[in-house]
Amino acid sequence: MTTEGKKCKLRERYCRIAQILLLVAGILLIFFGILMVFLAPYLINSKIRQKKNFAQDSELNYYWENPDYKYRSEIFIYSVNNSHQILSGNKPEMVQIGPYVFGVQVGRNILGYGNRSVKYQSFQSFIFDRNDSCEECSMHRKIIIPNIIFQKFAEISSNPVVSSIAHSSQPFLKVSVDDALFKGYVDPHLASVCTIPLADIICKSWNVPDKIGFLLHKNGAQRVVEASTGSEDGSIEAGELLSWDGLNLLPENWWNSKHARKINGSDGGLYKPFIKKTDKLYLFAPDICRSIHLTFAEEFVYKDVPAYRFIVKEDLLDPAVPGNEAFCHDDGRIFFSEDEKCLPKGLLDLSHCYNGKPPIVFSLPNFLYADERIKKSVIGLNESSVEHDSITLEIEPRTGTLLRIYIRYQINIAILKSQKMINDFNGTDLSKIRSTIVPLLAEYQVVEIGDGKADE
Q1: Max Cα distance, the chain (Å)
Q2: Residue 419 has what pLDDT?
Q3: What parts of the chain have a pLDDT lower than 70?
Q4: DSSP state letter for 166
Q5: pTM listed for this prediction
Q6: Are both 39 and 127 inside the same structural domain?
Q7: 57 and 29 in one domain?
Q8: Angle at 377 between CA 374 and CA 378, to 5 degrees
């Protein structure tokens, strides 16, 4: 064989080897490609679960301790415009003043870490933004509101001791907006009444606070909370509340079943990854003394990020829904009829979870989802709408990152007839007063992720 022939044979051998190597490499690439199709989602999901574990010194822990969110609150105040006519049986006519706009500074004070848990105190500070508020929105503006103490006395006015000591109490008070919200006001008659023998016993039994302010508790440090820090395999969700104020269950006198007293969900700061449309998202809301749930409403796009929108629906405050009767209190109050055990649909009685059992009632703004008779019993409110008045949570479903939440609610005072009420109380004819729910304020708070965090 010539030298040239040997070279050709050698080239053919190299070519065959190269072809075989290329074939093997191709097969391996196809194999690894197929493998990655199945493995990549697992690896990504595993990485997401690891990032949702906020144990001490983790990346998530830093963002959780130093939340990159913007907070803004708009508060509308209601003043009674016809207090004397209400005593004659007229519907309350409300004057809405607002919005009072506040910037809200928030943070968390970490108290310590335990076994996959962390104890902390949230704190917040409301800062009045005069420029963004309405022109007539002065914190010193006087408003007329129902007198909680008078209502308490009136409900048990058949008690001769109560009737004799409440001679100076008035059904309505004039207070400043600042005092009604954050500073607290002193009932001008309560201090003197509670020093009278026998009356002091009633005051102590009610545990009446020295000052009454409807957002007094929201400015400053909140109760101590313990939350789960999660686990890397996702078996324990980060952010789930384990206790509130040292309690695993809310006090027995607050609600009427163990299920109603459960502390479900997070404080709103963290949610699990891989959220499905069929999920219910739980949020513990200490201001209304219970956990609430939000259900899927729609898909939408938030700054180019595919997201889910969850909202509070009407089943939350409907006493006809099984289980919701545990949030009722049969205190002998009369609204539509004497045999009712619960307040009408759309209302939540908060009296049992605040000192002194004040007749405070929670609702959504403009009585969204409430019985039509409630809406028609008050003059001066706007038409309610799900878009503007519901509690709404917007979330990136894969990572469980909170994008934006709208916290909307209304605080009201119940003026209700009672089986222990007399018609002539302290010179006031109570026989003509109609049972009604009088709005005090509506808050519209939005919490939105910072631009830098959203880009991540």
Answers
A1: 133
A2: 52
A3: 1-15, 17-63, 153-169, 190-202, 205-206, 208, 231-236, 333-334, 336-339, 417-432, 452-456
A4: -
A5: 0.84
A6: no
A7: no
A8: 105
At 291, the amino acid letter reads S
> Angle 65-128-354 (CA atoms, 0-180°, nearest 5)?
70
Helix (H, G, I), strand (E, B) or coil at 38: helix
Give the separation between CA 16 and CA 189, rounded to whole angstroms.
104
319 and 177 in one domain?
Answer: yes
Q: Tell me: do 18 and 66 sit in the same domain.
A: no
- Classify residue 264 as exposed, middle or buried by CB count within 10 Å of its CB (0-12, 13-18, 19+): middle
- When divided into structural domains, the chain yields a total of 2
Is residue 266 within a helix (H) or strand (E), and if so which, with residue range? none
For residue 209, the number of C-alpha atoms closer than 13 Å in the C-beta half-sphere is 15
Q: What are phi and psi of 142, to 5 degrees?
A: -90, 140
What pLDDT score was predicted for residue 41?
40
Give the separation between CA 445 and CA 120, rounded to whole angstroms.
23
pLDDT of residue 52: 53
If asked whether residues 359 and 369 sit together in one domain, one would say yes
Cβ within 8 Å of residue 397, ≥6 positions away: 274, 275, 276, 306, 307, 308
Structure tokens at 281: 């998202």
Same domain, 32 and 95: no
Same-domain pairing of 45 and 159: no
289-304 pLDDT tens trace: 999 999 999 999 999 9
Q: What's residue 456's pLDDT?
A: 58
Label the pairing between strands 280-285 and 220-228. Answer: unpaired
Report pLDDT for 42.
38
Element (H, E) at 371: none
Nearest-angstrom CA–CA distance, 175 and 3 = 113
For residue 115, the model assigns a pLDDT of: 83
**Amino acid 14: pLDDT:** 61
Range of the domain at 445: 52-455
Coil, strand or helix at 61:
helix
Query: What confidence score (pLDDT) does residue 427 get?
Result: 55
